[in-house]
Amino acid sequence: MSSLQLSLVALLISWAVFSSCSAENILYTNDALYGGQSLTWGNYRLTMQTDCNLVLYDGGNAVWSSGTYNQGSGCYAKMQSDGNLVVYGGYNNALWATNTEREQGNYICVLQRDRNVVIYGPALWASGTNRVGTPGVVISAANSTQTAAATTESKSPSIAMVTN
């Protein structure tokens, strides 16, 4: 089997594992966070507050928000199939968006273990709140843990996938 064929097989296996797992730190395409619901990773929490503000907390400290405080009621944050994360108010009125619209597909919004909130599908938007020197995303399913750590090379930044 050639290395290309092995790579394709590994990619298909990874896709099967990742597509069937669920995590408390991932918002999948067409899923939403409603008032009081959160994505969590350790002490980090991305919360759709009942006051319509989407807020990222580190412990009890707010480190980022959508700035939509008291702009509606019945608000929710939805990960759309066009790659855009949108905070909607009553009557489905868009209050805030990442403005990352792309072609229709499967996207995920991930609260990473470095505190950064990132939309993947490929990565389209990040909150910019990650801490320097921490690993990126970790996805666990069954008895397998996958870690994706960002690496930066002079001309081509990449994502390295590590299997534990």
UniProtKB/TrEMBL annotation:
Gene Ontology biological-process annotations: response to other organism
Subcellular localization, as worded in the UniProt entry: Membrane
Superkingdom to which the source organism belongs: Eukaryota
InterPro entries linked to this entry: Bulb-type_lectin_dom, Bulb-type_lectin_dom_sf
SUPFAM superfamilies (UniProt xref): alpha-D-mannose-specific plant lectins
Signal peptide residues on this chain, from the entry's feature table: 1-23
An example Gene Ontology CC term for this record: membrane
Protein's recorded name: non-specific serine/threonine protein kinase
Name of the gene: LOC109719535
